[in-house]
Structure formats: structure tokens, C-alpha cells
Amino acid sequence: MTPQSDEDEVWRQIVASFNDTAEHDSADQPWPDSENLSPEPTRRVVKPPEGPLMSGSFGDQLRDDELRDDELERRDDDDDDDEGHFQPPPPPPLPKLDLPTKLAWVALFGGPAYLLVAAVAGWHMEGWALFTAVAAFIGGFVALVVRMGDGPPNDSGWDDGAVV
Predict the structure, then answer these.
(1) How far is Cα 94 from Cα 72, in angstroms, rounded to an integer?
(2) Is the pLDDT of residue 47 over 60?
(3) Residue 72 neighbours by CB distance under 10 Å
(4) Which pTM does this prediction carry?
(5) At what angle do helices 99-121 and 127-148 cross, to 10 degrees?
(6) Do 90 and 115 contact (CB within 8 A), yes or no?
(7) d(Cα 129, Cα 135) in Å, to the nearest integer?
(8) Lowest-confidence range among 25-29, 110-114, 141-145?
(9) How many angstroms from the chain centroid is the CA of residue 103?
(10) From CA 134, how far away is CA 140, in angstroms rounded?
(11) How many CB atoms lie within 10 A of CB 136?
């Protein structure tokens, strides 16, 4: 027999038994012992006595022990509430900008801002003011793109890992 004919025979058996019911229903099978869960441990709840306290130092000691147990139990309950809560660490501070970068950002937004304010206020704009505002926008954009750089970071080795 060839391997192809074996595969064909297995495939025919699978197709023929597609609508057959299982011999043993899975509900009839018992759980394996390894999947049985142990019952939860019982917690001891200590209630303060409602009657008069025992006199003497032994009664005071008993009362203090009960209060400590109650406090510990409340702390355990509080810890359970915060168990799934994630608080991310604070973000690192923003990097400090040097003077050329600050000037490039001011030029990038300052040129169009001046043109917008002048248009809304109805100011008469001279040719040199219009040219300066447009040149500031273009110069700020070019300065930021040039300072951005397109090479790999200097601190990485020969293998950057996955680059997206």
C-alpha cells in the first residue's frame, strides 16, 4: 500500500463516522483525581464578647487578642480587593529642549498664528511681513526635520531586533 492510499482510507473512515454518536458520553465519565479541588480552608471569625468583660489582666489580654485578630482579618480582606488592580509607574520626565529646537517650534507655529490673527483682525499686511511669516513656517519645519535624523540610534549594536 502506498502512503497516499493509507491517508485516503483514514479520510474515508473519518467521513463515515462523522454523524455517529460517541460510545461513552462524557458526562458519565468521572473526574480524574488530579482535577479535584480541595475545599477552601475555613476562616476563623472571632466576635467580641457581648456580655461583661472578665475582670483582671487576663480578661483585658483576651479582649486585646480578639481585637488584633479582627484587625488582621480586615487587613486580609482589604488586600483581596486590591489584588487585581494595576498602577503603572509614573512616566519619565520630558526631555529638555535646546534653544534651536525651541526656536524651530516657535517659528513652525508662530508664522501661521501671525497670519491667522492678522486675517481675523483685518490688519493690512505688508509684503515683507507675509514673506517672513511663511518663511518662518517653512524654516521651522525644515529645521525640525533635519534635527530629527534618520539613522539608527547611537547606543544600539549591530542588531536592532525587530524594527517596525
Answers:
(1) 43
(2) yes
(3) 11
(4) 0.40
(5) 150
(6) no
(7) 10
(8) 25-29
(9) 36
(10) 10
(11) 22
Contacts of residue 108, defined as CB under 8 A and 6 or more positions apart, other chains included, come to: 136, 137, 140, 141, 144
Cell of 5: 492510499
Q: What is the pLDDT of residue 161?
A: 67
Buried b (16+ CB within 10 A) or exposed e, 81-106: eeeeeeeeeeeeeeeeeeeeeebbee
Site of grid cell 463516522: 17
Give 29-38 pLDDT, tens digit per residue: 677 777 777 7
Radius of gyration of the chain (CA): 39
Distance CA 106, CA 85 (A): 42
Length of the chain: 164
Amino acid letter, 69: D
In three-state form (DSSP H/G/I as H, E/B as E, the rest C), the secondary structure along 79-100 is: HHHCCCCCCCCCCCCCCCCCHH
- Own/partner contacts of 63-72, CB < 8 Å, gap of 24 or more, are 69/44, 70/46
Give 68-119 pLDDT, tens digit per residue: 666 666 655 555 555 678 889 999 998 888 999 999 999 999 999 999 999 9
State the cell numbers at 25: 458520553
